[in-house]
Write a structure and sequence with these properties.
The protein has 509 residues and is α+β, with helices and mostly antiparallel strands. The chain has 16 helices and 16 strands. The chain has a five-stranded antiparallel sheet. Strands 12, 13, 14, 15 and 16 form a five-stranded antiparallel sheet that branches. A hairpin with a 2-residue loop joins strand 14 (446-452) and strand 15 (455-465). Helix 8 (168-196) runs parallel beside helix 10 (238-277), helix 10 (238-277) packs antiparallel against helix 11 (284-309) and helix 15 (419-434) packs antiparallel against helix 16. The longest helix is centred in the middle third of the chain and has 40 residues, at 238-277. The protein is elongated, with a radius of gyration of 40 Å. The relative contact order is 0.06.
Length: 509
């Protein structure tokens, strides 16, 4: 007789419901149904819960009594499945081993043993199919046993302030206790590290770097795991326990992403330090780029987890992004071109971090190759930022990659230099050049170019082996200084290339 009251239904209200094209209680999928049920469990009015119970009659007192007993049992001995694991499809999870019209959304710890909380999908005469708590799940709760507890639950529910689907007390526990414990533990850890001298900020100590990077997120995970575990022993209701479990799980998930983010940074610093130590700066840009991609993927995962926690259909959002992606790409065309340009630069490697180069009149050292732009430090110690799509289309002169340094030096000897001394100067110059250890043999490295208005023109044109631009410049200086010393010994003077003009007055100017 008690269950018959539960199965009674009001035909007129059913017809009104069937006329709705969209279910006002959002019971179209298991996840949305569980969210709707959870939101009304904190209410002291059993009529709010009735739409989520199969066959319940919000106008029949016997039906409402059974709903209150079920809510009391759920509050004291029930647990709900994490909503993120429930299906968002209208048909539910067809591979869960249950009947196609059944889903499990939680568990009741009854005296007879644990019993699943089942929901059933029904199809009204009109409107969409909906999910409701199966009648047999409610029937297994003993009315007499939980009727007194139902009154207690109703009294506790009066005056409860709900914020984002959770009681205000739950938010105070999660934010106040959780974050305070996290702050105290992390602060104490940092003080201890500084006292022991293991607060390594350079990132050159692998073990210390990992420990310092991993401790804050691991602490956050541990604190909220403890908060979730302590909820039931502290006497929290189902609504509070479920909210604590949900938001603690969200905090733990973000802490895991935070941990991966920090470890990616530590690994990147190690790689950059190691690549510099083995003189392989070409791979630094690629390492930085991969690290940025990993962190971008972590951001996408974090956003997806957040949306799924609040029952927002991620696939629908991705489809919307796909449709709006064209408009977004058109609006952010330059940004997309810069990302493509960065991939081309990292793949083709016209410049590397640490290289000296010249791009469109800008000469300096490459500091960083980012996803959008490349930064070059000029010789004046200023920073020039060049968009990667511009850099990829420019003629880039890389002065670091040269394997030899060219000497192309012209100088003049006075016309009063005797022919014998001119020939000696040529031979001495050849001897100095060819005596260099880094000289790369070539035909006629020193030449007598001919006559100019200012004097005899001699030219040095040869190559010296050099691993870098700076080293080649130093070796060129060595050759020119040796030449000046030898010319001083044999009495040869180098004259300026300026012309001497005498006016009619005889005064030279």
């Amino acid at each position: 007789m008690e269950s018959s009251a539960l199965h009674a239904s009001d035909g007129s209200s059913g017809e009104a419901e069937n006329k709705e094209v969209i279910d006002p209680f959002k019971r179209e999928s298991p996840r949305s149904m569980q969210i709707g049920l959870f939101n009304v469990l904190g209410s002291s009015n059993a009529q709010d819960v009735a739409p989520f119970i199969e066959g319940a009659d919000a106008g029949a007192e016997e039906s409402l009594r059974r709903i209150r007993a079920f809510v009391a049992a759920l509050d004291r001995r029930g647990s709900l499945t994490q909503r993120i694991s429930l299906s968002i499809e209208p048909e539910g999870n067809l591979a869960d081993g249950l009947a196609p019209d059944l889903e499990e959304i939680g568990t009741l710890a009854l005296d007879e043993g644990d019993a699943p909380i089942l929901i059933r999908r029904t199809q009204p005469d009109e409107g969409p199919a909906i999910w409701q708590v199966a009648a047999e799940t409610v029937d297994q709760v003993a009315l007499e046993e939980y009727e007194e507890e139902a009154e207690t639950v109703d009294e506790e529910a009066v005056g409860t302030t709900m914020v984002l689907g959770a009681p205000l007390s739950t938010w105070l526990l999660i934010t106040g206790l959780g974050l305070s414990a996290f702050a105290v533990i992390v602060l104490s850890f940092k003080i201890i590290c500084r006292k022991l001298g293991v607060d390594d900020r350079t990132g050159h100590r692998p073990l210390g770097s990992i420990l310092l990077a991993a401790f804050p997120p691991l602490t956050l995970m541990g604190v909220y795991a403890a908060v979730e575990r302590l909820a039931e022993p502290l006497g929290a209701s189902l609504v509070e326990r479920t909210a604590i479990a949900r938001y603690s799980g969200l905090a733990i998930g973000f802490a895991a992403i935070w941990l991966a983010w920090r470890l990616a940074g530590v690994i990147n610093r190690w790689m950059v330090h190691w690549l510099r130590s083995v003189d392989q700066p070409a791979w630094i840009g690629l390492t930085n780029f991969v690290t940025r991609l990993v962190r971008l993927a972590l951001i996408v995962v974090a956003i997806g987890t957040f949306l799924a926690t609040f029952a927002i259909d991620v696939t629908t959002g991705l489809a919307a992004l796909g449709i709006g992606g064209v408009a977004l790409a058109l609006g952010a065309r330059k940004a997309v071109e810069d990302i493509v340009g960065s991939v081309m630069i990292l793949a083709d490697k016209p410049v590397r971090i640490g290289d000296r180069c010249k791009v469109d009149g800008v000469e300096g050292e490459v500091l960083d190759i980012g996803m959008r732009s490349t930064r070059i430090q000029t010789y004046d110690r200023t920073i020039t930022t060049i968009p990667n799509n511009v850099l990829a289309s420019q003629n880039i002169e890389n002065m670091t990659l040269r394997d030899r340094y060219q000497i192309d030096q012209r100088f003049l000897l006075a016309y009063d230099t005797p022919p014998e001394l001119l020939a000696q100067a040529l031979q001495e110059t050849r001897n100095i050049v060819e005596a260099q250890e880094d000289y790369i043999h070539s035909t006629c490295p020193v030449r007598f170019e001919g006559f100019t208005p200012a004097g005899f023109e001699l030219r040095i044109k040869c190559y010296l082996a050099a691993e870098s631009y700076s080293l080649g410049h130093l070796r060129k200086e060595k050759v020119l200084i040796a030449l000046l010393q030898r010319f001083g010994e044999i009495g040869v003077s180098i004259v300026p290339s300026a012309q001497r003009i005498e006016l009619s007055g005889g005064t030279p100017r």
